Amino acid sequence: MTSDVMNLNVTNLGDQVEDEDMITHKDLVKSALSVGSLGMEFSWTYYKQMNIAFCLMLANMLKKIYRNDPEGYKAALERHLAFFNITVQFAPFVGGVAISMEERVARGEIEPESVNDVKAALMGPLSGIGDSIFLATIRVIAAAVGIALCQAGNPFGPIAFLLIYNIPGFWLRIWGVQKGYELGVDFLAKAQENGLMTKVMTAVSIVGIMVVGAMSVDMFWASIPIEIGVGENVQTVQDILDGIMPGMLGMAAFWIYYWLLSKKISPSWLIVGSMLLGVVGVYFGFLA
Fold first, then answer.
1. Nearest to residue 149, comparing CAs of 138, 161, 167?
2. Adjacent-strand bridge partners of 84
3. How do residues 167-196 score in pLDDT, each as one tens digit?
4. Contact assessment for residue 58 and residue 98, using Cβ atoms and an 8 Å cutoff
5. What is the pLDDT of residues 114-150, one digit of tens each?
6. DSSP state of 49
7. Residue 95 in contact with residue 60, Cβ under 8 Å?
8. By the 8 A CB rule, do 223 and 238 touch?
9. CA pair distance 66, 40, nearest whole angstrom
């Protein structure tokens, strides 16, 4: 009898320790509504953008996963301080995928580097989708409704804007972190075994490169106003470049910065250099 009780107690203790190590539904929801998740834009930097907030969003779950491995916990924190940028409402989804993969890293089933590879592959496509939905659609609709109510003298206008814009966003945060965790455990594991992961990563990378290409044009604001010709035949250098290929100047700038970064030039120096080049270029008239 005494032996049976002891065995039962040991079994219960083992189950308790296992439960303490497991990521629960509550853990996921808390991460999606944590300071890190809701503060993605508050700690934004030009160097690594949302990395600090993303790491903070995962910190408590990482501590749980590596509760008996301080070095593993330290390495995980450093891993998630890598560059990260995404439409903020999609950040918990990527966090869920990352946490499910971190559990496999802790068990030695996958390489730690694969976590950031998947994060990088998801950032571009999800940002393209998220910006279109939340910034270009829902925010515009929310602003239109809020402004219309305000013009009518209804004090509910600002509240309507906040509700229309934030309710879908908070729903996506809570649902996304859970779905990301489920996909990370089941789909990604099976995809890696049957080779589907390679195909998915390739397809997602292509979309991501397309997004980067579009951003290199839309987020570059400079032109070369130097005029060539006389009378009615006057053209600017910018007109000629646009006639050859629209966005050529932005693409050239992108590759120059990419090359300089590959040479270990500090992003801070690139920012300062860009500011100086802009001021000098406008002053002497070869940039506008």
1. 161
2. 49
3. 999 999 999 999 999 887 666 566 666 666
4. yes
5. 888 888 888 887 887 888 888 888 888 899 999 999 9
6. B
7. no
8. yes
9. 24
